[in-house]
Structures are given as C-alpha cells and as structure tokens.
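Q: What structure does this chain adopt?
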Amino acid sequence: MDWRTTDLSDAHPEAETLPMVFRSFGGKTRFQGRVRTLKVFQDNALVRRVLEEEGGGQVLVVDGGGSLKTALLGGNLARLAWERG
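A:
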C-alpha cells in the first residue's frame, strides 16, 4: 500500500497525530502498523517486557518523559524487536 499522511488525515478527521520530533535510525523512510504506546522514565524494563511479546507488525512508540539521562532502546532491544516482528 502507498498511503500518504495527508490522504489519511482527510479521510479520518478524528485521528490524532504526533508532533514531528522523531529521527530515523533504521533507514526506512516509511512504515506502518498498529501503534502501541508506552510511557516510562529512565527505566526500560517495561520496554523489554513488551518487546518480548510477539509484535505482529505493531509499531512501538516510547515516551521517555524527555529524559536524556538513560537509553531506553539499544542494540539488544532493537534486535529483540526485529526478531519478534
């Protein structure tokens, strides 16, 4: 499928959007999937628990509360996410 954000927004005015504060780390310019959100603060234990489940193509969005003190996702968790889909 080739969806454009503008088309989706026009077709679904009730849909909410996120501010454009994301950076690309994976080299993909587009992706899609059901979104699952987490809010954590300086602890990635919940992120790990979620990533240990089968992903089914979901997109995990993690709100770290703005902290830059600790990493919430590194190479090991990225691999786990990739393996679980």
